[in-house]
UniProtKB/TrEMBL annotation:
Organism of origin: Adineta steineri
Stated name of the protein: Uncharacterized protein
Amino acid sequence: MKYSYFPLQHILNQHPHISKHAFLDTSLEFISYKNNNIVMIGDSQLVSTSSSFNDNEDEILSVSDFSHLFHHNINMNQLSCTINASLDLFNIETVEKISQRFHFILNQLCVSINDNQISKPMYELLLILSNEQYLIRSLNNTQISFPSSLTCIHHEFVYQVMKHPQKLAVELDDQSLTYCELLYYVQILFFTLVNEYHVLPGEV
């Protein structure tokens, strides 16, 4: 976005005639706080934060469609993330998928830091989750296991002729051949090569 390095107020002043800016539908906030009055409920910590910001003294813009908040607790030296999404625009499954993907990327970044690979470029990070990788591998795995007795391709071809004699085996433009017809022409070619040209098995 043009002038993205400006403070937010300067960016909004570039287009004073627009009542609602499209880029405000998605927000990323980083909040660093130091609070000695920590409220804990079990393992959860309550933090008072705001999901809106002031454009000027008279107007408050609310971040409602999608927001990603980072909370940095200086006292505990902890970093937590919160994703808020409008259910009018996002399914719960979609938000869960976004959070899983973000968590997966963070894990890769942490591994890169531990392995002293901080210079690793961002485009080398994987975005595909493990279950999606498994799905892609299963879709690309087109290998078919044939019975051990059918070790040669011509054996398998004859088996298909016997199983589906009237099904189409070859089709090109407006012409087609069934398995039975294709076997007939293959046999004619075979006898022609053997009887007229004296071709021996293994020479072709």
